């Protein structure tokens, strides 16, 4: 698989596409393609985040039925921060999915001098369909708040087909402590409570096999948890 292969999936576009998605796309078009931009001005937490992700991934390989280590997907990849800082150290092939072309171009540019192998998919997760049975790990972080509940369930269902038999879908997301869904009109996203995330996972025919809280983040931020899930 060649480095730098950019793919735009052919999808049917609804002319009445939800303003929820349009507004989010417009917001991210104004965000600089930097680590600080990706993390909303909190680039200082990037290293803590990546180390926490690595620890969680390590724990998954202690499971009896652990996934392979051949190919991963970075869902909502942005400029490739997670790919370059974490996933590439564990998988020889990492594919990136990102709907903002500016971010994906920056990711491709940053990864060009490395030994990265993988494809670049310029598409939103609400429209992305993975190739069948190819991924050991599908890592989806800080992006699910940009999908509606129905689209999130549909995305989860499509992810099931993209996983290898022992493959896992890993979610890393902010969670509300109020028990309610909280809307951010600035970037057109929602933050869900844990109970709703679990409910949507179950509705898609998946189950959580391991869960862990991200440690050492500033107290004023949302709680962040990682969920490893697999088909029921």
TrEMBL record:
Its EC number is 2.1.1.244. SUPFAM superfamilies: S-adenosyl-L-methionine-dependent methyltransferases (SSF53335). It catalyses: N-terminal L-alanyl-L-prolyl-L-lysyl-[protein] + 3 S-adenosyl-L-methionine = N-terminal N,N,N-trimethyl-L-alanyl-L-prolyl-L-lysyl-[protein] + 3 S-adenosyl-L-homocysteine + 3 H(+); N-terminal L-prolyl-L-prolyl-L-lysyl-[protein] + 2 S-adenosyl-L-methionine = N-terminal N,N-dimethyl-L-prolyl-L-prolyl-L-lysyl-[protein] + 2 S-adenosyl-L-homocysteine + 2 H(+); N-terminal L-seryl-L-prolyl-L-lysyl-[protein] + 3 S-adenosyl-L-methionine = N-terminal N,N,N-trimethyl-L-seryl-L-prolyl-L-lysyl-[protein] + 3 S-adenosyl-L-homocysteine + 3 H(+). GO terms for biological process: methylation. Keywords: Methyltransferase, S-adenosyl-L-methionine, Transferase. Pfam families: Methyltransf_PK. It is an enzyme of class 2 (transferase). Transmembrane segments: none annotated. One of its GO terms (molecular function) is N-terminal protein N-methyltransferase activity. Coiled coil: none annotated. It comes from the Eukaryota. S-adenosyl-L-methionine binds at residues 76, 81, 125-126, 141. Belongs to the methyltransferase superfamily. NTM1 family. This is Alpha N-terminal protein methyltransferase 1. It comes from Daphnia pulex (Water flea). The gene is EOG090X0EJQ.
């Amino acid at each position: 698989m060649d480095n730098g292969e950019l793919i735009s999936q052919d999808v049917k576009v609804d002319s009445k596409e939800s303003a929820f998605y349009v507004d989010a796309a417009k917001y991210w078009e104004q965000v600089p393609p930097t680590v600080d931009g990706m993390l909303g001005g909190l680039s200082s937490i990037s290293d803590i985040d990546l180390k926490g992700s690595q620890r969680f991934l390590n724990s998954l390989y202690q499971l009896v039925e652990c996934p392979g280590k051949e190919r991963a997907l970075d869902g909502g990849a942005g400029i490739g921060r997670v790919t370059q800082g974490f996933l590439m150290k564990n998988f020889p092939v990492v594919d990136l999915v990102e709907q903002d072309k500016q971010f994906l171009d920056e990711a491709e540019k940053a990864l060009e001098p490395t030994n990265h192998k993988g494809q670049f998919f310029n598409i939103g997760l609400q429209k992305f369909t993975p190739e069948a049975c190819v991924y050991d790990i599908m890592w989806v972080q800080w992006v699910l708040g940009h999908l509606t509940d129905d689209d999130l369930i549909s995305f989860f269902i499509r992810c099931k087909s993209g996983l290898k038999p022992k493959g896992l879908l890993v979610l890393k997301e902010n969670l509300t402590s109020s028990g309610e869904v909280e809307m951010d009109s600035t970037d057109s996203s929602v933050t869900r409570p844990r109970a709703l995330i679990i409910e949507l996972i179950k509705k898609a025919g998946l189950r959580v096999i391991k869960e862990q809280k991200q440690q050492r983040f500033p107290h004023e931020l949302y709680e962040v948890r990682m969920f490893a899930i697999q088909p029921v």
